[in-house]
Amino acid sequence: MAERLDADFAVIPNAIHSPTTENPTALATLLVTTWRTWLNP
User: Fold this and answer.
1) Whose CA, among 5, 13, 27, 28, lies 20 to 30 Å from 21?
2) CB distance 39 to 33 below 8 Å
3) Quick one: pLDDT at residue 40?
4) Of 1, 32, 28, which is closest to residue 12 (Cα–Cα)?
5) What is the superkingdom listed in this entry's lineage (predicted)?
6) pLDDT > 90 in the chain, percent
């Protein structure tokens, strides 16, 4: 799916298995930034 969306590879710092619980702030920041670039090219 990431390939079809032309999504970039990203690593969430300090998250080994579940970024949602291990580093939610970094995950949310990355997601919002990505979504904004998709919605406002």
Assistant:
1) 5
2) no
3) 87
4) 28
5) Bacteria
6) 61
**Would you state the structure tokens that stand for residue 34, as one six-digit string?**
């990505």
Read off the amino acid at residue 4. Answer: R
* Amino acid (one-letter) located at 24: P
User: Which positions ≥6 away from 37 have C-beta within 8 Å?
Assistant: none
For residue 10, which of 24, 38, 31 has the smallest C-alpha distance?
A: 31
Asked whether the beta carbons of 20 and 27 are under 8 A apart, the reply is yes
| Amino acid identity for residue 2 in this structure | A
